Amino acid sequence: MTRRGKFITLEGGEGVGKSTNLTAIETLLRSRGVDVCVSREPGGTALGEAIRELLLSPGDSSPLPKAELLLVFAARAQHIDAVIEPALAAGQWVLCDRFTDATYAYQGYARELPLEMIAALEQLVQGQLRPDLTVLLDLPPTVGLERAAQRAQLDRFEQETQTFFDCVRRGYLARAQAEPQRWLIVDAAQSLPQVQADVARKLGEWMALHGF
Known about the structure:
With 212 residues, the protein is α/β, with parallel strands linked by helices. The chain contains eight helices and five strands. The longest helix is centred in the middle third of the chain and has 25 residues, at 65-89. 36% of the residues are buried. The chain has a single domain (7-41, 87-209), classed as 3-Layer(aba) Sandwich (Rossmann fold), CATH 3.40.50. Helix 1 (18-31) packs across helix 8 (192-209), helix 2 packs antiparallel against helix 3 (65-89) and helix 3 runs parallel beside helix 5 (115-126). It has a five-stranded parallel beta sheet with strand order 2-3-1-4-5, with helices on both faces.
């Protein structure tokens, strides 16, 4: 019988370096003989990527907060059924750039939608599926927004105010405080080599603790 894979998510606000560190985590896992499926949210499927485009594109027809929330979970439902669950069942480890903790942080704490509403959708769409481990790249929003501003074009979320991202950060830290055994918090204000060294060390300790 195939041993079910592990589900690892990477979270953080804008400009924290998720893409670079996602690649570093994938490399580390593969070096330890782990078969990894890498994905992202919103996205991961053709439908999910189309929804991602709707959510991130700046413009005058931005969805209302509740519509935004439902779009996020529509993409997630497709992603879980088509990618995440099949990979986990096949014994792969799924490494995902953002998941439902981002929904609590962005749509809950920052958009101020009821957390109970998000929890109800989480249960409806995910059932018992939850990440085994979440790595949070924590960074003051002032620094993250400065980094994001160096990009060619900001997406709809990156154009939000610092107050919005203060709420996002507060949401992430509240989630981590409520469930500390699932979270690894890394100071993303350090240099990239230091961040990657911290991620590698903490992830290695977590794997050793769980017999991997």
